[in-house]
Design a protein that fits this description.
The complex is a heterodimer of chains A (about 750) and B (about 130).
Chain A (H helix, E strand, L loop, with lengths): L1 H12 L1 H6 L2 H31 L3 H22 L4 H22 L4 H16 L1 H23 L3 H50 L3 E6 L4 E4 L1 H7 L3 H4 L10 H16 L7 E9 L5 E13 L2 E10 L1 H26 L4 H24 L1 H17 L3 E6 L4 E4 L1 H7 L3 H4 L4 H4 L2 E2 L8 H9 L15 E2 L6 E4 L5 E13 L2 E11 L1 H36 L8 H32 L7 E3 L1 H19 L2 E6 L6 E3 L1 H18 L5 E8 L7 H4 L4 E8 L20 H6 L7 H11 L3 E7 L3 E9 L16
Parallel strand pairs in A: 14-16
Antiparallel strand pairs in A: 1-2, 1-5, 3-4, 4-5, 6-7, 6-12, 8-10, 9-11, 10-11, 11-12, 13-15, 16-17, 17-19, 18-19
Helix pairs in contact in A: 3-4, 3-6, 3-8, 4-6, 5-6, 5-7, 6-7, 6-8, 7-8, 12-13, 12-14, 13-14, 19-20, 20-25, 21-22, 22-25
Chain B lengths: L6 E5 L3 H13 L3 E5 L2 H11 L3 E4 L8 H10 L9 E5 L4 H10 L3 E4 L5 H17 L1
Parallel strand pairs in B: 1-2, 1-3, 3-4, 4-5
Helix pairs in contact in B: 2-3, 3-4
Classes of the chains: A alpha+beta (about 750), B alpha/beta (about 130).
Chain lengths: ~750, ~130
Amino acid sequence: MRNIIDKIQEILINPLKEVSDLPTLRKTRLLTFAILLLLVFNIVFSLIPEALGITSFGMLGLSIVFTLLLFVTYVISRYGFVTLSTSAIILAFSAAVFYMSYQIGDTDILPYIVIPLLIGSMLLDLKYMRWVFYTILAMAVIFPVFIEGLTIKDFLFGFISYLVMIEGLVYLVTWNRERIEELHIVNVKRRENFLKAIVSNVDEALITINRHGKIKFWNPSAERMYGYSQKEVLGKDISEFINEKFIEMHSRMVERYVNSNFKSNEVEQMRMEEESRKGKKIILEVSAAAWSIEKKMYITAILHDITKQIEIENRFIRKKEEAEKLALESSKHLQLVEEKNVQLERTKKAMLNLLEDIEEDKAIVEREKARSDSILLAIGEGVVVTDRKDRILLVNDAFEEMLGWKRGEVKGKSFVELIPMQNEKGKDVPVKERMKHLLLYEGKDINESNGRYLTRTSSVKPYYYIRKDGSRFPVNITKTPIVMGRDNVGTVEVFRDITREREIDKAKTEFVSIASHQLRTPLSTIGWYTEMLVSEDAGRLNSDQKSYLKEIYIGNKRMIKLVNALLNVSRIEMGTFGVAPVEIDITKLADDVVREFLPLVKKKGISFDKEYAKDIPKIKLDTKLTRIVFQNILSNAVKYTPKGGKVTLDIRMGDDSKGTVKERQLSKNVIIKISDTGCGIPEKQKDKIFTKLFRADNVKEIDPDGTGLGLYIVKSIVDNARGKIWFESEENKGTTFFVAIPITGMKKQEGTKSLIGG
Amino acid sequence: MSDKKEKILIVEDEAPLLNVLDKKFKQEGYETILAKDGRKGLEMAKSEQPDLILLDILMPKMDGLEMLKRLRASVDGGRDIPVFCLTNLSEMENISEAVQIGVSGYLVKTDWKLDEVVKKVKEKLNEAHEE
């Protein structure tokens, strides 16, 4: 900082000093000086014969003294003491010489001594000294005329010859001066351009303001940073553009600089947050120094944008913490299946982030490399990092354990060739297919999906990796390319042995399957026998017997319903229910379900209305699941609405200009609205309504048979379809359920189980 | 209905259910033949050539789907006999497997009343007659 200020000062204030050091000029000066000395000695020695004859040696000594005086004057002039004082001395000496020569009585010598003296003084300040010179010349010529009675002819000859000689010298000196000035200008220009180039190209904003806060200089970086051009700001008050902290600093510096009598050399440094013209928040590091030129004071500040740097620092700290946490978690390994999945995903992410950071800030990551390496190696899942040609760069301990290959054996080898992969049927997955399937992305627009491409293999139909010894195990693989800018520079793969998970999964599946069979078999026995009895196939019954049997039959039905719901719940919780979307007309499906309910609606004496918008597109939905959603909500609405009440079904597209606030946010969704005028949901229990096995107090009285699973299942289905479900309700007035389903529809989901429609 | 009674093979390992189905279908005027496992069922299907088979899936010795597969593959008759799966397995994979092998219907026991099962069988047989 100080350096830059010094440089500016030097360039602006001291161009002459710089120039005088130039070798060419020094030469010119020396040349002038040499001519002068030559002239002096020439004059002095031309006088010697005459001096020997007529005058004393004292005169010669005097002339030597004057020559020395000339030299001293010249030396003094180099240090810049010129003008009046010098010329006064010279005049005094000249007068003294005249007086002495008058005393001696020989005036011929006078011009010879005085003239060189004058020429020398001319060098010091031409403009001024020229007049001094002419005065003395006049004296030198006029004195002899008075004293020795020289003729006018002699006088004129002398005067003109000296005049020519002196004017010649004047010309030489003038020329020299002009050269100096010329060079000075060129030099200043050059310096100026140099300075300009520096100032325009530095990343830092450079701002110079005067002591009153008026902006004097504003470089292109400042334009970029603040969004104001130099034109807009020059001469304006700094407080219009820069925040208060800076203004405070400015006044502080001005005060200090003025108090120190323009000598304070301190540099102020600070950090401030700034908002650019476009409203972007930036963090600046500011250094400012005061300087002055001709008693005018300026402050130059350098503003360095460190927003990104801080961001990177912060991000890195976050990443580091994340990674450390993950490493810790990894060591706790072997937990529940669900946790594993989440962990795998996060591990993946953290690693990816670490690798991304390599790109963002190599220097920082270098420092952290050792740390991240150890994290990588400690992760419980198998990790393999390859370059873009699939050569293995790094594997961790888990990789070694799982595959039986040692680190040293695999480094640099092609991963897909080294570790064969099979599908469930034991067929090798071709290398080409694996590269295509897992590495790929070459040439794709990396910016899609935020630069993240995750390929994950399914747990339901897993692939198998072959160990070194030829045995195999099922894996769950997550693989991502390492993307830098737009280039794919390699891949990271994390894989996990899912043998045990699969066993657990299988056991669970079998349990549910068996349980469903075992529980239902006796229920169907009871059901069918009761049916036989009630239909009096086995003989007539009295009315009591008949009604008792009916109770048994109803109880049995309830039991069946409960078993079905419980099975659905267990499937939902295992995540094994399948979704098979087909393009359907949702209003047709709704009509189908409504038809099932119409007899009950009639019997209960309530009215039913429906309204479908015309612009509802066909959506890919799983018919069975969608049916369950309609069935459950409609069944509740009908069940809990008393005689004389009303149930309404309304299907339309979400519209950002219509409906409730929530509906308006769902413009790309089909919104199903089912309203009733039933008992409503008690205020206190609203937040529990989607909870498994929960039943509101008021409905327990109306219908003691409910399972408390219907809405839980509905919500699970809606969530799975990335839809939304919510309700509005007032106790004893009614309830409206809203279901929003994205028009993108449901995603196909492999699953061995399907949910049982009710 | 023709003078000759139509013959229904019921394959079911659960005795009470076999019993109630037997009673019901007899009552409805059908001739019934019964088997308590898949192996027996396959034998009877081949030898007796029933008009329709009601088939449980989860059974000892040979399960219903295996029996169905073999029946459909057999050369000595039985390929075209209509079959209803009457079971308590409601897994998607069971249903789709059954449909792939070729069944006329897949009825989950707890969801169907006896009367409805009878109705379904009647419809199927009438359909066969019309053809």
